[in-house]
């Protein structure tokens, strides 16, 4: 009887330990999932707050640029290309891409400028944009050189200072690397400093993992794009990019944009 009792007790102890291990494993998985979900929501909230702030600053910057542009046009007798003071409504462009340029090599000079500017870190967005678009002769060149500067920056090779402010180029690039910012917000901000209307378009894309018939019911296939107003029409400029995307991915995005 004593031997049988000891064997039963041993079996119960092993079973209890197994149940305990399973419970701890389940609770750990549940806790990690809750932590991941909370972190994701915090990042989304921070990105949304940043996007709203950039939207406000972009409108203010465009207003100031339009005021200065109007003053310049009043003092100058020469007729300059008119750029709308407010964002025009969306409509199909009157020109095709081939009507604007036929070979990406036409942008070789502004591309080289963007590459040179990317070798140094500018302290303010004003300094950065002035260096990028100061010698551009058209709205298309302005958008191109901003786009090219973004694709040149390799976030994986940049060492960021933790004290970098979010209202500086380096601070925003740091945010992109760690998931609190996005390329689309950066492109929109730089366009506003260059006097270009730019919007962020949100939607879905059939990226890796998508299977025919899958419904877009969660955030797995969420994506964003930029549309910038150049050459008298709205044109899609920059596709989605993951935080910290390597330079090889940037090269692929650049080649796709050129095609």
Biggest β-sheet: strands ordered side by side in the sheet: 1-2-3
Instruction: Tell me the span between the first and last alpha carbons.
Output: 84 Å
Radius of gyration: 26 Å
Strand count, sense and barrel status of the largest sheet are: 3 strands, antiparallel
What fraction, in percent, of the residue positions are helical?
A: 55-70%
Percentage of β-strand residues:
5-15%
SSE order, as H and E?
A: HHHHHHHEEEH
Total of helices: 8
Mean pLDDT over the full residue set: 78
Structural class: mainly alpha
Q: What is the 3D shape?
A: elongated
- E-strand count: 3
Low-confidence stretches: 238-259
Number of domains: 1
Biased composition (Pro residues): 85-95
Protein name: Transglutaminase-like domain-containing protein
Domain Transglutaminase-like: 173-240
Region (Disordered): 1-21, 73-99
Fold topology:
Layout: H1 2-75, H2 97-100, H3 108-118, H4 125-133, H5 139-152, H6 169-177, H7 183-193, E1 198-204, E2 222-230, E3 233-238, H8 247-258
Antiparallel strand pairs: 1-2, 2-3
Helix pairs in contact: 1-7, 3-5, 5-7, 5-8
